[in-house]
Amino acid sequence: MLERLNQAMEHIEGRLDGRIDAADLARIVMTSEYHLRRLFSALAGMPLSEYVRRRRLTIAGAEVLAGDRTLLEIAVRYGYTSGEAFARAFRAVHGVGPGEARRSGASLRSQPRLSFRLTVEGNSSMRYRVVEKDEFRMVGRKARVPLVHEGVNPAIADFIRGIGQEALGRMELLSDQEPRGIVGVSGNLDPSRAEGTGLDYFHGVVTRAAVPEDMEALDVPAGTWAVFESSGTFPQALQYLWRDVFTQWFPSNPYRSRPGPELLRVRLSQDASEADAELWIPVERTPL
Asked: I want to staple 145 with a disulfide (CB 3.0 to 4.6 A). Which of 48, 155, 214, 250 is the partner?
C-alpha cells in the first residue's frame, strides 16, 4: 500500500501543470476513489485536492519569482482561467499576491512533496467487529452543519440542545435494534473533507417504529459495517478513533471504506469529560 501511495504522489508531481484525475490515482493505489480520498486525508492531515492545490501553487510561486513567464502564462499553466482567480488562490496560500511577490521578492510558503514511510506502531490493539446488516431506518432530526476536524463541533452541539430533552426522551424510547440508543449520523460530506465544508448530521435512533410527526426518517441500505469501540477523553478520543481506523486498521485489514453514512454512538460520563463510543463505518472487502 505505501509503495502504491508513493507512486500516486509521483504521478501528481509529473502532472502539476496538467490534469490530475483522482480516479487515475485510485487505480495506481488499487483501491476505490472514495477510499483513497478518505485514506489520504487521514494520513496527510489535509484533503487530496488541497494537497494538489498547495503543490501547484508552490511550483507556481517559484516561477513567479523567477520572472521568465508572465503572470497570466503561469496562471494558465497551472489551471487557472484568469489572472484574478490565480491571484486569489496565490494570496490564500502565500499571503501575498503574485504581482507583489514578483516586485518585492517576497517570502513565499512551500508545500513539501509528500512521501509515505513505514513507522512501527500498533502496539495497542483496536477492538472491532464486522456486522452484516439489512436495510434499516433511522428516525430523528437532521441539520446541515460545517465539518470540524478537532474539538467539539459547536453547530452540532447547538442543534442537539435545540431538539430538547422531551423529544430526545421520546426518540430514545423508539430504539429497538443495533446500534442501540441515540446515534449521531454523518453523511453527504464534501468529497474534499476540508475543514468548514458541509455535512448532513442526523441525530436519531435505529427503529422499526412509525415515524412521529415531528421527526423524519433516514433509510440506510443493507451492507457491511466495521464497528469499533473506544473509551477515553471526550471529544479527542472519538476523533483519534476515526484517525486510527484509517491510518492503522484499514492498512492492516482486507477492507476499504464504501460510500454511506457513518454512525457514532456515545455514552458520556457524568461530567462529560470521558466517553465510551461505538463507531460504525461502512466497508467492503478489498478485491483480491
From this structure: 155
Mean pLDDT value of segment 255-279:
87
Q: Are 35 and 23 in contact (CB under 8 A)?
A: no
222-259 burial code (b ≥16 CB/10 A, e <16): ebbbbbbebeeebbebbeebbebbbebbbeebebbbbe
| pLDDT band of 239, cuts 50, 70, 90 | confident
Residue 24's pLDDT band, with cuts at 50, 70 and 90, is very high
State pLDDT tens for residues 80-124: 989 999 999 999 999 999 999 998 877 888 888 888 775 544 444
Annotate the chain with DSSP letters as a single string: -HHHHHHHHHHHHTTTTS---HHHHHHHHTS-HHHHHHHHHHHHSS-HHHHHHHHHHHHHHHHHHH-SS-HHHHHHHTT-SSHHHHHHHHHHHHSS-HHHHHHHT------PPP---------S--EEEEEEE--EEEEEEEEEEE--SSS--HHHHHHHHHH-HHHHHHHHHT--SSSPS-EEEEES--TT--TT-EEEEEEEEE-SSPPPTT-EEEEE--EEEEEEEEEEETTHHHHHHHHHIIIIIHHHSSEEE-SS-EEEEEEE-TTSSEEEEEEEEEEEEPP-
Q: What is the pTM of this model?
A: 0.73
Spacing of C-alpha 11 from chain mean position: 22
